[in-house]
Structure formats: structure tokens, C-alpha cells
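Note to self: keep these together.
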Amino acid sequence: MRELLLSCPEEQAEHLSDALLEAGALSVSVEDADGDTEHEKPLFGEPGIEPEVLAWHHNRVVALLPEDMEPQDMVQLLGQAGVLDPAQVQWSVRDVPDADWVRLTQSQFGPIPVGERILIVPSWHKDDVDLPLVQEAGDGLVRIELDPGLAFGTGSHPTTHLCLDWLAHHVQPGQTVLDYGCGSGILAIAARKLGAGQTLGVDIDEQAVISTRYNAQVNQVQVQGLLPDQMPAGQTDLVVANILANPLRMLAPMLANRVKPGGHLVLSGIYDWQADEMIAVYSPYLPLTVWQIRDGWVCLAGQRPL
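Structure:
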């Protein structure tokens, strides 16, 4: 593929960028033509003050061209649109090396260990010979195969780590589980692999429900993926909700009442400075305490009185 490089003053940069996209460029970026020289200048001034024009004094507008478009044809199109004078504009072309963008993207997502018992493995790493096998040598290791996708919960976020770590330390064989706001289903899948019994994954996003069902099937565990209005009545031994503070406030009565007497509630998606308020919100239903804090996020856990 090739890039078309056009020089222009700051007052033309935004208009030229828009015109390139309209003419068929795959992408457009603006660079400082004086970059890496003594004339290089910062784009922004004082903190919080945005310039009127998002460009430098001397600009290089870079357009990625489709394979079937010649650079001179793009310049002519811009001339016909009155954006520039083809006889006066300074332009050049540079080649973009071929790359396997899928592999480059996948290389950013490697296996993610969570504590000592859980390993999250993207599908493109599942056959890596240097990774431990499932429950190898009876060490109780849990491997979860999960790819980055549309639904939240790939195992990389601190709140997901906190919930997974809690599950690894506390899930008892046969316990029933409700993962509310299940996203990818990672917490529900982990609970099943750690020995839990009947497990529900519930989310208001239909795509998340689909992801949960798919990921459960890939990991060879049974998890019911449901929308909220499909939830059966009843209570579970463990309710986990990794959402955000505002919905957790509104859901407090429902989530707490879904916990069996003697069961546990685990919440995350909460900043550490929100912990005291969230504990107060849930105090009429069950006592919560801070279980762990990680990177400014907190995991709250509590047991419903018998």
C-alpha cells in the first residue's frame, strides 16, 4: 500500500483532511512538517487550552490510499474539487510495508495469569507448548480460553482480576452462582471451573449474553446466559457483580435479595474512594467490607446474615 504526503499551511489542514477522506482515502493523519528539527513546535499551549486549529504552522497531511488508486489521480480529484492547485502543491509518495495486522493485533494479547490458580489464554495461544496444561499435575490450575471481543471482561482489567482472585479463594464445590453484568462470562466460567454448581450469567446487553454462551461452550462448562427478564426466581450461594458504582447503587436491593442467607455478595467496578459510600448503600441488606484494592479499584465482599 502507499501513502500520499501533501504539504499545506495550518489553515488548510483540516479541510484537506476531510477532502481526502471524501475522495476515497482509507485514513488521514496530520504531521508536523518541522518535526525533529529546530523549528519543531508543540501543538498545544497551556494545559487545558485547545488551539483553534488542530494543525501546525507547516503540515504534512498523510493519506493512506486504496490499492487501486494512483497518487496523481487523488491529487487531480482534489484539484477538481477546488481544494488545491495540482500544479502548485508539493506532494510525494511513500510505501507502507505489508504486515499481517491480525497477527500484530493478537501479539498484544498474551496469556494473563490471575493469582496462582487462574490463567486466561487467548485462543491463538492455546497450543503453546510452554503453557501449563489444565490442572497439570493436580495443582488445581484453571485455564480459561477467552478472546478479546465485544463484551467486557477479557481478564486484563483490575476489577476483573479482583473478582477472579476472590472466586479462586472462596468458591466451594457445588455452590450456585449468579454473575450479574456478566459481559464475556469470564467470572461465571471461572466459578464453574473452580467447582461451582449451577451458574447464571445475566446481562442487559444481548451481545454479552451471546458472548457468555459462546465462551462457556468453548471452555466446556455449563453457564446459562440470560437477559434480566429471563432470570428465574430464587437465590444463590454467591452473587458477583463487576459493573460500575452507579448501577450497583440502583441494583442494591435486587442483588442483595438474590443472595441466600449465609451466602456471599461480591462487588467490583468501584473506585477505592467510593468504597465507604457503597458499603453504606448496602448496609440495610448485608454488611460489606473491603476485600482487596488494586490500582485504585476495590473489591467489596460480604455475607448475608442467616
